[in-house]
Design goal:
Blueprint (H helix, E strand, L loop, with lengths): L14 E15 L1 H5 L6 E3 L6 E14 L9 E14 L4 E10 L14 E10 L5 E7 L5 E11 L4 H7 L3 E6 L2 E8 L6 E10 L1 H4 L10 E13 L3 E2 L8
Parallel strand pairs: 5-6, 5-9
Antiparallel strand pairs: 1-3, 1-12, 2-4, 3-4, 4-5, 6-7, 7-8, 8-11, 9-10, 10-12, 10-13
Length: 240
C-alpha cells in the first residue's frame, strides 16, 4: 500500500520548494483507456478497479536549490495532469501527462523528460474562502478555469492517501524511463467542492472527457519539499 510518509530520505536534494494551496480533482477511468496512453514499461495502477487521472493546481513557493540565499527563490503557479502507475518491478509512481507552469525556471526539468509547458497561470483567493485557478498554455491551448471551495478537515483514509501521496515521478527521455524521488511531510487534507471547472488538458493528453464522479481534496500545502536527482529506471537505488 502507498504510505502517507516519504519512502526515502533525500539528503542532497537538487531542488527545495513549498507546495501550497493545492487542489486535487481525481477522476476514475477505465484502466484500458489510461494504459493506451502510457509508454512501454509502465502499467496503470488501480484503486477500486479503476485507473485515476488527477488535475492538481497549486502554488510553487520558495523554489530553488538548497542553501542561501533563500530570498532569491521563486514563487509561481503550477498545474499538473497526472496518473498513477507501476514500474515493471511493482514500484508505484506518478506519470505526468503535462505540467503547466508560469516560470521558465522549471523548464530545465525537460532534460529528464518532464513535460513542462510555459503558460499564463493565476491563483486567486477570495473573501468567501473560494479559490480560483486559471491557466492557458502559450499558443492558446489547452486551458483551464476552476473555482473550488475548501471544506472540513478530514482524517485521510486509504483511498485519500493512495491518490495524494506518491514519492517518485517517472519521465521518459531518449527512449528510456527515469525516476525522480521526492520527500515531504504528510499532506494535511480537507474535503472540497468544485464550483465550476472547464479544462482541455485531458483532451490534449489524448484522454476522453472525464465521465465518472470526481473526488476532490484540498490542502493548504506542504513546506518541506525535497526533490532528488533523476536516475534511470532499473538502476539500483541509493540514498539520495
Amino acid at each position: 500500500m502507498v504510505s502517507s510518509t516519504a519512502e526515502q530520505h533525500i539528503a542532497f536534494p537538487l531542488l527545495k520548494a513549498q507546495w501550497l494551496c493545492q487542489t486535487f480533482i481525481h477522476w476514475p477511468y477505465e484502466p484500458a483507456v489510461v494504459q493506451a496512453v502510457l509508454p512501454p514499461g509502465l502499467s496503470a495502477d488501480l484503486y477500486d478497479d479503476a485507473a485515476w487521472v488527477s488535475f492538481t493546481p497549486f502554488l510553487m513557493s520558495r523554489v530553488g536549490p538548497p542553501g542561501p540565499p533563500a530570498a532569491h527563490r521563486a514563487t509561481f503557479p503550477e498545474t499538473n495532469l497526472r496518473t498513477y502507475v507501476r514500474l515493471e518491478d511493482g514500484t508505484d509512481a506518478l506519470w505526468f501527462f503535462s505540467l503547466e507552469v508560469s516560470s521558465a525556471l522549471m523548464l530545465t526539468a525537460r532534460l529528464a523528460g518532464a513535460p513542462y509547458h510555459l503558460g499564463d497561470l493565476s491563483l486567486r483567493t477570495r473573501g468567501d474562502g473560494s479559490i480560483t485557478y486559471t491557466g492557458v498554455r502559450r499558443g492558446g491551448a489547452p486551458s483551464y478555469h476552476l473555482t473550488v471551495r475548501p471544506g472540513r478537515v478530514i482524517v485521510p483514509g486509504a483511498r485519500d492517501i493512495w491518490l495524494t501521496s506518491r514519492w517518485r515521478a517517472v519521465t521518459r527521455r531518449a527512449g528510456r524511463l527515469w525516476q525522480t524521488p521526492v520527500a515531504h511531510e504528510p499532506w494535511p487534507l480537507s474535503a472540497a467542492r468544485e464550483d465550476g471547472l472547464e479544462q482541455s488538458l485531458t483532451h490534449a493528453a489524448g484522454l476522453p472527457p472525464p465521465a465518472g464522479t470526481p473526488l476532490l481534496h484540498f490542502s493548504p500545502g506542504v513546506r518541506r519539499v525535497r526533490l532528488g536527482a533523476p536516475r534511470p529506471v532499473g538502476r539500483r537505488q541509493r540514498r539520495s
